[in-house]
Structures are given as structure tokens and as C-alpha cells.
Amino acid sequence: MNTNQMCLTRVFTTNAAVGGVLDETPNETGGSTSATFWFTIEAEAGENLGSLLAAYDLVITANSTTGGTPAFAKVQRRENVGSAGDGWTHVNPNLGWRKSQTIAVTTTDFPPGEGYELHVRIVGLPGSGILCKMDSNEFYVFP
After folding, report:
1. What is the 3-state secondary structure (H, E, C) of 96-121?
2. Assigned CATH for 6-140
3. Which residues have a Cβ under 8 Å from the Cβ of 91 and sit 6 or more positions away?
4. Is the N-terminal amide bond of 111 cis, ω within 30° of 0?
């Protein structure tokens, strides 16, 4: 990866807070439903961006793929490449940075019986536009 580049590598819903895998029905496990599911964001960045603690905005939005209306409120956070608090870890000297962050999502933000997607945008600062974007898997919320 270029030392001044950043990109999303994977975004997905899961029913586990740690170590979860992609799950298209994240609030249902073994016939039981949960009030929370998780959204995992993975990204990579070049060495220089992490060394500079480069700032960016992480933006998450949602929409229904089947006509429903999610109550999910847009999330917008100011983060820094290289910040452990934002999920970044250094990958050996001069090999760049890797992000893995899991965010709790409230099931009631998504009316049951509909399909949804979450959308992630990384917006550069100052005002440099969208650096990268990625959509999650389509998922369904069980009542």
C-alpha cells in the first residue's frame, strides 16, 4: 500500500462482539433474538498516515433494501489513523496500519422483517472528499 493511502477492506454485520464472522441475521442466534448486534469495520492505511496520526471522518449510514424505514441515526466520528482508541494497530515497522473496530448496533433501529445495509464512508480532512466507501452485507432483523 502507498504510504499516503487508506482504504476500507471489509465491513460486515455479526452476532458476536469479538471475533465474529459475517452474519446475515445478526440479531438471531439458535432461535433466540438479541437487542444488539455488531458491525465490524476493517481498513488499512499506509505508514505515513499512521505516523502523522492523520485525521479523517468515519461516517456510517443505513438504508433498507426492501422498502422499510430504518430509525438508525447517522454516525459521524472524527478519528485518527494510528490511534489505538480508533481500532488501529501498527503492522511491523514500515508495513502500515490495520484497523479492526466493532460497533454495537441497536436492533430496534431496524424494523423487523426487512432487509438492510450499512454504508461506511471515510472522508478526508480538510475537505478532501470521500477517500473510500464500502457497503455491508445485506442483513435481516428478526422480530
Report:
1. CEEEEEEEEEEHHHCCCCCEEEEEEE
2. 2.60.40.10
3. 97, 98
4. no
Alpha helices in the chain (DSSP H): 47-51
Count Cβ neighbours within 10 Å for each residue of 93-102 and write b for 16 or more, e otherwise: eeebbbbebb
Domain limits of the chain? 6-140
Map grid coordinates 424505514 to a residue: 69
Residue of 61, 60, 68 whose CA lies nearest to 115? 68
All residues at 6 or more sequence positions from 44 whose CB lies less than 8 Å from its CB, including other chains: 1, 6, 7, 9, 96, 97, 98, 99
pLDDT of residue 125: 72
User: What are the CA-CA distances from residue 7 to residues 25, 34, 90, 95, 137 (Å)?
Assistant: 26, 31, 15, 15, 18
pLDDT in tens, 18-59: 778 889 998 887 777 888 999 999 999 999 998 899 999 999
Nearest residue to 29 via CA among 13, 15, 40 = 15
All cell numbers assigned to 31:
432461535
Global confidence as pTM? 0.91
